[in-house]
Every structure is written in C-alpha cells, then in structure tokens.
Task: structure prediction
Amino acid sequence: MGKVLRSDQVGSLLRPRELLDARANYADSKIGLEELRKVEDKAIMAALEMQRNIGIDVLVDGEFRRRAFYSGPTDWLEGFTSSNEPRIQEWFGPGGGKLPSASRVVAAKLKHHRFTAHETEFLREHTPGRFKLTLPSASQLYAGTFLKGVTDQFYPTPQDLLADIVQILQTEIKAAVADGASYIQTDSPNYSDYVSTAHRQKLTDAGVDIENRLDELIAADNVCLETARLEGAVVGFHVCRGNSRSRWQKEGGYEPIAEKVFGSLAADRLLLEYDTDRAGGFEPLRFIPDGPIVVLGLVSTKGPLLEQKDHLLRRIEEASRYVPVERLALSPQCGFASTLAGNLLTEDDQWRKLELVVETAREVWG
Result:
C-alpha cells in the first residue's frame, strides 16, 4: 500500500437485513455458526464488490462478523464481567438523553482469544494486500474496567491492567499483520471525553489529573501503534465522539487535547470527526506534527442528507491553512454501524456518501 490513501472509511457498514436476521437466529440457536458464516461471507463479498465499484482506496469487511466495533470484549477476552451498577451515559441526537448502559469490569486475569483470525483469513483471500482491519484501542478497552475490591485481586493497580491489555493487543496486531492486514486502525472514544469543559471540570473535581491520565493513555496506545508499524502496516487512529443509532456523546472542539494528543499519538493517519460544528474549527490542526496524514471526517454517517461536493471542497481548503493539502485525506466522520442496529440511513444512502468521498478526493488529489 505504497500510495497515499486519499479516500478512506472508518470501518463499519450497515448490515444487510439478511445478515441481521441470521445473527438473530444464531443468538436464538436456530442456526449454527457454519450457517451464520455463510451469510456473513455472502454479505462481505457483496460489500467488497460495492467498494471496488465505487473506487475507494482501501477496502473493509464492514465489521460484519462483529456485534459492535470492538466485537464485545467478552467475545474474545475472558475475565470481564457485568457490573452491578449500570453506567449512565448522555447521548445527543435522535432518542438521546441520559440513558443506562451496560458496564463491564475486569474480575479475573484476562485471557485472550484471537478474534480477527476469520476476518483476516477471508479478506486476505478476497482482497490481497488491500484491506484495513479495525481494532479497539488500549484506551477503549481499559476505560472504566478497574474496580477496587474486584480487579485488584488480579491486577494490583490500574497500570498493571492497562499493561496487560496492551500486551494482548500487541499479540492480536502482530497476528493480524502476519495474516495480511496492511492497514491497522485503532479506535477510541475516550480522548474526546476531554474536549468538554464541563466534563473536564467533573474529572478535576473528582481528583483526576487530566494531563497525567492523557499521558498514560497515549503511552499505552502508542505501544500498539508502534507494534503495527514495526510489523509493516500503515497505522491509523480514529478519535470517536460516540456513534449509536445516529446519536453522539461528545461535543466541543479539539483545542483542549490537541497539543498533547495530536502531537504525541504515533499514527501514520489521524481520522478526525469534522462533520458538524460540534467538533469546532480546524485551528487545533496546527498541532499536527510533520508526517501524519489527517483524514478529515467531513461526510456524516448520522443521517441520509448527502453533503454538497462544493461544501467539502471549501472545508478541505480551510483545513489546508493548518495542514498542507498533500497531508490531508477524506472520509466519513465515523462508521455507519458501530453496533448491529446501525445509524438511521439506508444502504443506498451509505453508498452515495462513500461515492461522494471518492469523487471529492479525486477532484482534490487526482
């Protein structure tokens, strides 16, 4: 993958109805794993063909084999358990509000099972040398999972738990690259926790040293990113703001985290959400060091309205005041279906948006 990838995609695609039905039947023990795999294979082949026809620079399997973008840690990591205290999360957008969410904690020594092996095996056969694999970041898997009185029976400190998560991800990354994944992207909704003034104040009031915490998370994620790079992969990092049924969680410009996060993450490509003004302006991009490609997430996956190409061209020009245009690329702002249910748009809407990404990228970069 020697050329610069100008048209990118964050990862997940809307699941076709046949696949959603098959997964529901599998959950109800109405079909077996082999039959589910056949439906997954068929859906992925169709999605790959659509992406080839559109001409996007890198192909994905849409995360069709996963229940969520991180696959559900209990699917591939033994040691998690549900917390007795549901976490209350605030969502914005359709059906938003303060909603309970299942919370998970580590209650045993973590045991790792490969969870991308079937993905990479199939993609290597059908997209040799051209596919991206998405993984949850260390900061994502670690967030909120250390519970005093429970986790410390197996990991004396939070840092011990984080170190083990990093080691597990390194193992997964090395295996995935060996299987043929030439582009590894890790995803984290956690850095955008720190863009909100109100949320930062809550953390400060709770005694959290925000700068030290960011340093800790960046250091952990960088070990994983460097591992992928040393194995020979292009390395991307997506800073997510929450993505479920067209809702989001985090609002505020990148300025409070830009110098530290943009300046320190060891990624070849930073995929940043910039589809609405809730992400603020492009000024924080001035902290991007020489080298990384900034993938501007200007096309929204939250709804069906198709952006205007002229608007995207103007936005790219605005961003180029802070990062040279030759170090920019274009993508949707997030995945189309970070969870099975997906966002509130149709598959046709999704493909039109990806076509727009490709057409705009070709106009800008050739």
The longest strand covers residues 104-112.
